[in-house]
Design brief:
This is DNA-(apurinic or apyrimidinic site) lyase. Its cofactor is Zn(2+). It catalyses: 2'-deoxyribonucleotide-(2'-deoxyribose 5'-phosphate)-2'-deoxyribonucleotide-DNA = a 3'-end 2'-deoxyribonucleotide-(2,3-dehydro-2,3-deoxyribose 5'-phosphate)-DNA + a 5'-end 5'-phospho-2'-deoxyribonucleoside-DNA + H(+). Its EC number is 4.2.99.18. This protein is an alpha+beta fold and 271 residues long. It has two domains: 117 residues, N-terminal domain of MutM-like DNA repair proteins, CATH 3.20.190.10; 130 residues, Orthogonal Bundle (Helicase, Ruva Protein, domain 3). The protein contains eight helices and ten strands. The longest helix has 21 residues. The chain is globular, with a radius of gyration of 20 Å. The model has no long low-confidence stretch (mean pLDDT 93). The structure holds a DNA duplex (13 and 13 nucleotides).
Length: 271
Amino acid sequence: MPEGHTIHRLAAEHLRMFGGRALRAESPQGRFAEGARRLDGRVLTEAEAHGKHLLLRFEDEWLVHIHLGLYGTYTFGPVPAPEPRGLVRLRLTGVSEFADLRGPAACELLEPGEVKVLLDRLGADPLRADADPERAWRRIGRSRTSIAALLMDQSVVAGPGNVYRAEVLFRQGVDPGLPGRALTREQWSAIWADLVGLMRVGVATGRIDTVRPEHTPEAMGRPPRVDDHGGEVYVYRRAGLPCLVCGTEVRTERLVGRNLFWCPACQPAAR
DNA sequence: CCAAAATGGACAG
DNA sequence: TGTCCCTTTTGGT
């Protein structure tokens, strides 16, 4: 379930498990065999997330870039690690724990120049202290593209994915189809602040929970719902179900290749 | 057994 | 805008 909060958790987890000590690295699947050989026996010095990208730095300037994409997952466990099951692209083994990476869109060694190119094209990450939401606003405030599409553009905002996109627009009562330049400055500030808050909760809990206390199933007298993204949400993947706030049917539509969800009553189109 | 879907993004045109 | 690539899980035959 990789949106940005997952990647920030993974970075912290890597440091906790492996930081400062020599690691074993291998690629049981074989597709990162060369890279794993370079890393094997080296010390992990740094792990950080930029949006949905995970960067692991090792001694001697070696840097691994990992992007989970849609399917990538990590599993962790205590040593001794069992025989790899499934297609394990990269296994790191430390003193007491191991990490298996399966199905990433990217797992590669990068040169410093390539890292810079990568970071330069990423927009503001709500989970990073060095994020620049002003720069994002300069793009959004001039764009004819819908705010729903802009929020998924990683060169504008880096980290939120389809779930946070849908949920923050719902919470702020913003029509997904609203062009970026039709947003007010205040609306953008509220969206940004909400993303920061929601995603910090996500890092702390490992789930995406966006429902305010007054709208929880308990408070509304409904049965609790837990979908496989792990948390309680207002509209994501709730097409055809009643809006948790007003009861209107949640709608869905394909937008730039992704499923968008919203409540037409709580997020009315401007007229 | 097979098909479809999934929280992403690169690339072609 | 569409196509393709990562892999696992789920549901239907």
